[in-house]
Amino acid sequence: MAAQRLARQKGSRTIAVSNVVGSTIAREADGVLYTYAGREVSIASTKAFTAQMAVLFLLAAYLGQVRQQLSKEVASRWIDELLSLPKKAEAVLQSDGMCRELARRFQRAEDFLFVGRAIHYPIAMDGALKLKEVSYVHAEGYPTGETKHGPNALIDESLPVVMIATHDASDPGSLLRYEKNVAALKGFTKQRAQVIALASEGDKQIEDLADHTIFIPQTPELLGPILEIIPLQLFAYHMAVIKGLDVDKPRNLVKSVMHE
User: Fold this and answer.
1) What letter would DSSP give residue 145?
2) Please, what's the b/e burial string for 112-125 (b: 16 or more CB within 10 A of its CB; e: otherwise)?
3) CATH code at 140?
4) Same domain for 80 and 208?
5) 81 and 144 in one domain?
6) Looking at the predicted structure, is the pLDDT value of residue 132 above 90?
7) How confident is the model at residue 172 (pLDDT cuts 50, 70, 90)?
8) Are residues 122 and 210 in the same domain?
9) How many domains does the structure of the chain reveal?
């Protein structure tokens, strides 16, 4: 709120992205984009986080059209891809059993390293955050390409590495990053790391290299994060349940907006 008020004092116009109709930040902003994700009981944001990513994608697509950087035809294709995500999300939810098994396997681990490259790095950070919030296990999100500048020294058989290694076969940049991810994964395995990988459906190369692989349906690069966060949330959830912790109300944490 302080940041928004300072921005307005300096003449900036502000847009709020909020899941709560009539919230203070929504009332004080010049414009508001509501996510309408429904009331979220848990302090750890899950569906609201997913809805925010979808809303921000729509905002970017709209601005692209307004600035004439994105044609109506291309924007329409993006919307079709967005509308296909619910079915793909249902497919990802089928990994629940595997996430439960992984939580059981790694329940005694004291540290985790989550890594992702480019647009997937924030998802690695949020996956680590969720694990910290609800299971009280230390976890760190880090850019895959920067692991050699510090975290690499920590990687051994006692440090589980959760790696986002999906790719979009139609995107040259994504394919280049994928090649770098494969090289990084080979390095992790040489260091005897236990690797849990998120890979695109049908990716045998990642499956052969990683110790455990969760598959994500083929999706355009910019929409992949919306699906990738789901198994990371499930993993954190099951880790907390196995430890007998209250998933909805982690200790010492409160929501910024409370409802009666």
Assistant:
1) G
2) bbbbbbebbbebbb
3) 3.40.50.10490
4) no
5) no
6) yes
7) very high
8) yes
9) 2
